[in-house]
Amino acid sequence: MERDVVIIGAGPSGLTAAWELKKAGLSVAVLEARDRVGGRTWTDTIDGAMLEIGGQWVSPDQTALLGLLDELGLETFPRYRHGESIYIGPDAKRQRYTGEMFPVSEQTQAEMNRLIGILDTLAAEAGPEAPWTHPMARELDTISFHHWLRKQSSDEDACNNIGLFIAGGMLTKPAHSFSALQAVLMAASAGSFSNLVDDNFILDKRVIGGMQQVSERLAAKLGDDVVLNSPVRTLRWAGQAPDAATAAADSTHDGVTAISDSVTVRARYAIMAVPPNLYSRVSFEPPLPRRQHQMHQHQSLGLVIKIHAVYETPFWREEGLSGTCFSPTSVVQEVYDNTNYQDPRGTLVGFISDEKADAMFELSVEDRKAAVLGAVAEYLGPKALEPVVYYESDWGSEEWTRGAYAASYDLGGLHRYGKDQLTPVGPIYWSCSDLAAEGYQHVDGAVRMGQQTAARILGAAETAGTAAASAPASTGAGEPAGTARHGA
């Protein structure tokens, strides 16, 4: 088939781009390897319980996602957060508390506030668009977040608690494996580090019926232009440039040919709307420039187990608890009330990240479940040991994801490669939440990237169409690039 644009990946970013392009009059084809749309958003029914297996939360600053939800007719509901939260510190003491700050010593609280202030300042200075331009970018990018925190403070509890918000809660990698600059980007993308600390802000609302509906409703609008069970094996593009800058400047290309297991699509442009760790699953002919080859090897996803436990009732509410729990030392570092809209049952969701997830995967299924529920029971009591439904989201084993939540650079990679991560290679564009500025790692970032990528292609098509229209007839210039094309 022939289209103006072929999109590889039917997650929120690829489908948003496809819908924006189609509304503008271009023809599209979206090729998806899975048997479903949604990418890293997935709502499924497990043993009679609806579970958000993938991304799910909406925060007030995520205006691109909020706008799309409104366009698609989807409504949200607030996360339950009434009552006291639970914190278990290094001394294994269980404490009930209210407010944003953990119930730690005055000294540790002061250090945490000081560190948050430093990170807020750096995030404001760096911004989400180009943190690699910050005067201290190289310095911040060549030291791990773990060691940077300890250069700022000798309070180990403060460092571990601050590290929890980025390492376990966001990047799902040990704090010694990513840079301070990567942490600053994570904070800047959410508006500030203070926003990341405030679970009432960052985990504000959910979509009634599940986040995957965003992709499902976009796919319904696109109809037969979305092709499932079609992993793209080869992407042929005309022209070979020695580096990214030359490739981006070269607008005189003959388009692309995407060859999947079920269909071949010839198009003027291609959008790679999958995480960077999956780029290598596609054979590019000719190969991508060396800059991309090197860059993509320095980007990887983290590891997290998202656990779901459904109970006959939300028993913790009866005890005056919100269901929100934190501990930098527990196997399950975070727990939240994840009860579905108007559901009389109670659902808890918990997260086990990086090295703790490694340890859990070394156990048998039965022993892992016992260890996980035991950790939740340390927060909320023995009733947590007896859910009616228990499920583990293991995105690291998903063939077409292979990690969570999104890609980040290894030490030194962000300031080295960040400026080129969105540079098109001839007709090939890159679009995913992993590359977003605002909304980085979130569905909002995926939507923003889809909108921005569509706008860039529309601009390129308009430029190419103008050039073609003004070319002498003897050059053989064909139809303008912006003209929608259909056919088999």
TrEMBL record:
<feature type="binding site">
    <location>
        <begin position="32"/>
        <end position="33"/>
    </location>
    <ligand>
        <name>FAD</name>
    </ligand>
</feature>
<dbReference type="GO" id="GO:0016491">
    <property type="term" value="F:oxidoreductase activity"/>
</dbReference>
<comment type="similarity">
    <text>Belongs to the flavin monoamine oxidase family.</text>
</comment>
<dbReference type="InterPro" id="IPR001613">
    <property type="entry name" value="Flavin_amine_oxidase"/>
</dbReference>
<feature type="binding site">
    <location>
        <position position="351"/>
    </location>
    <ligand>
        <name>substrate</name>
    </ligand>
</feature>
<dbReference type="InterPro" id="IPR050703">
    <property type="entry name" value="Flavin_MAO"/>
</dbReference>
<dbReference type="Pfam" id="PF01593">
    <property type="entry name" value="Amino_oxidase"/>
</dbReference>
<feature type="region of interest" description="Disordered">
    <location>
        <begin position="468"/>
        <end position="488"/>
    </location>
</feature>
<dbReference type="InterPro" id="IPR002937">
    <property type="entry name" value="Amino_oxidase"/>
</dbReference>
<feature type="binding site">
    <location>
        <position position="232"/>
    </location>
    <ligand>
        <name>FAD</name>
    </ligand>
</feature>
<feature type="domain" description="Amine oxidase">
    <location>
        <begin position="13"/>
        <end position="458"/>
    </location>
</feature>
<feature type="binding site">
    <location>
        <position position="13"/>
    </location>
    <ligand>
        <name>FAD</name>
    </ligand>
</feature>
<keyword id="KW-0560">Oxidoreductase</keyword>
<dbReference type="InterPro" id="IPR036188">
    <property type="entry name" value="FAD/NAD-bd_sf"/>
</dbReference>
<protein>
    <submittedName>
        <fullName>Putrescine oxidase</fullName>
    </submittedName>
</protein>
